[in-house]
Amino acid sequence: MKIHVLPAGPIETNAFLLTDAVRGEAVLIDAPGEIWAWVEPILAREKCRLVELWLTHGHWDHIQDAANVVRASGAKVRGHAADRVFFETPQIMSAFLSGRISLEPVVVDHWVAQGDRFEALGREVEVRHVPGHCPGNVLFYFVGEKAAFVGDALFAGSVGRTDLPGGSREELFQSISTQIYTMPDETVVYPGHGPATTVGTEKQSNPYVRG
């Protein structure tokens, strides 16, 4: 499995395109603005078909191009029902952004929940619910590869903001302690913004939540 890190959109939100050329399949994690323009040529080059789009949460910068990606690829969408209002009624966020960014609703085909396990690209994936940044933030953990895509729960040396609607500092810190820091220390953490880190590094040095 190859991991393509694709920062995109107005605030450089990370999208992650996971490709498996042997299977000819790919999964996209999050869909910032105009991400399809970056994803499509990679799929063509690696002869892969996008089969699923996973949304770590429903904030505008992670779903801005989601509807377009689905139209172009036919990919099925996974997300958490606690952010359903964001996925289905993005005008809420457009109003919050003073109408500067237009957002389309996205239909979620599979609602994920804490502890779900499923197969993707021939690999086992575990879902962990990590609310606090927003109600529906989840991480997708590739167990065998020790790779976790955590949305905006945890960053390298920082944590997600909690001052937006549905945010909670206490809940976020609890999510990090119980859902992220309980993964093996060598697990690579791929956040929604900025560089990758590891569970062990953040447990030792994150100034907000220590393990």
What is the assigned CATH homologous superfamily? Ribonuclease Z/Hydroxyacylglutathione hydrolase-like
For the largest beta-sheet, the strand count, sense and barrel status come to: 6 strands, mixed
Mean pLDDT: 95
The first-to-last residue Cα distance is 29 Å
- Name the CATH architecture: 4-Layer Sandwich
Quickly count the helices.
7
Please give the number of β-strands: 14
| Unreliable parts | none
Give an overview in words:
The protein has helices at residues 36-46, 60-63, 66-73, 84-88, 91-96, 169-180, 199-205, and strands spanning 2-8, 13-20, 25-29, 49-54, 76-80, 110-112, 117-120, 123-129, 138-142, 147-151, 154-155, 158-159, 188-191, 197-198. With 211 residues, it is of the alpha/beta class. A hairpin with a 4-residue loop joins β2 (13-20) and β3. The model has no long low-confidence stretch (mean pLDDT 95).
Comma- or semicolon-separated keywords:
6-stranded mixed β-sheet, 211 residues, 7 helices, globular, single chain, alpha/beta, Metallo-beta-lactamase, Chain A, 14 strands
Quick gist of this model?
With 211 residues, this protein is an alpha/beta fold. It has helices at residues 36-46, 60-63, 66-73, 84-88, 91-96, 169-180, 199-205; strands at residues 2-8, 13-20, 25-29, 49-54, 76-80, 110-112, 117-120, 123-129, 138-142, 147-151, 154-155, 158-159, 188-191, 197-198.
